[in-house]
Amino acid sequence: MIRTLFVAAITAILAAPAAHAQATAGKAAVNDTLFATAAALGGLAEVSLSELGVQKATDPELKRFSQQMIDEHRRMNNELWTLASQKRISLPRTVDARAQFCAQSLAGLSGEEFDRCYAKAQHVAHMDSVAIFEAEAQRGLDSDMRALAAKGLTHIRQHLATIKPIAMKYEREQPK
Q1: Which tens digits make up the pLDDT trace of 83-123?
Q2: Hey, which end of the chain has fewer CB within 10 Å, N or C?
Q3: Whole-model pTM above 0.90?
Q4: Rounded to the nearest 5°, which phi and psi values hold at 73?
C-alpha cells in the first residue's frame, strides 16, 4: 500500500511538467532560457532608452514616463537577474546592437522630432515586451519563470497603456 502511494506520488511529480505542457494543448511550450535572455535584453534597452528620454524629451509627460520606466525596469531587471542566477541562467548585462542603434538614432534628434520618435520607439518596444511576457506566462515550462513573467506582464501592459495614447498623439500630429 505504501509502495503504491509512493509510486503514485513520484509519477505525479514527474508528470507535472508534461501536464503543464499538455494544458497548453495546441500551443508549443516556450524556452525559459530564451525568454530570460530576451527579457533581459529588453529590460536593458528600456533603461537605456528611458535615460535618453529623461535627458532629451521636451514633453513633460514623456519625461515622467521615462523616469517611471527607469525605476520600474531596473527593479524588474534585478528580479529577473536574481531568478536567472538561481536557475543558473547566464544573462547579458549590456544592450545588444539593435538597442544601441535605436539609442544612437534617437540621440541625433531633438525637440518634438525626438519626442515623436522616442514615443513611437517606446510604443513598439512595449508591444514587443507584452508578446514576450505573455508567451512565457502562458507557455513557459519553469513555474518560477512563468510567475515572474505574469507579474512583469501586469506592469508592462500598464506601460503600454500609458505610452500608446502619447505615441498616437504624435502620430496624428506628424507633419506630412
Answers
A1: 999 999 999 999 999 999 999 999 999 999 999 999 999 99
A2: C
A3: no
A4: -75, -30
Question: Which residue from 63, 172, 74, 77 is spatially nearest to 122, judged by alpha carbons?
Answer: 63
pLDDT in tens, 59-87: 999 999 999 999 999 999 999 999 999 99
Backbone angles phi, psi at 58, to 5 degrees: -100, -20
Rounded CA-CA distance 34/38 in Å is: 6
Indicate which CATH number applies to the domain containing 139: 1.20.1260.10
- Print the domain residue range for 128: 31-173
Tell me the C-alpha distance between 125 and 141, whole Å: 25
Cell of 65: 514616463
Note whether 68 and 103 are same-domain residues: yes
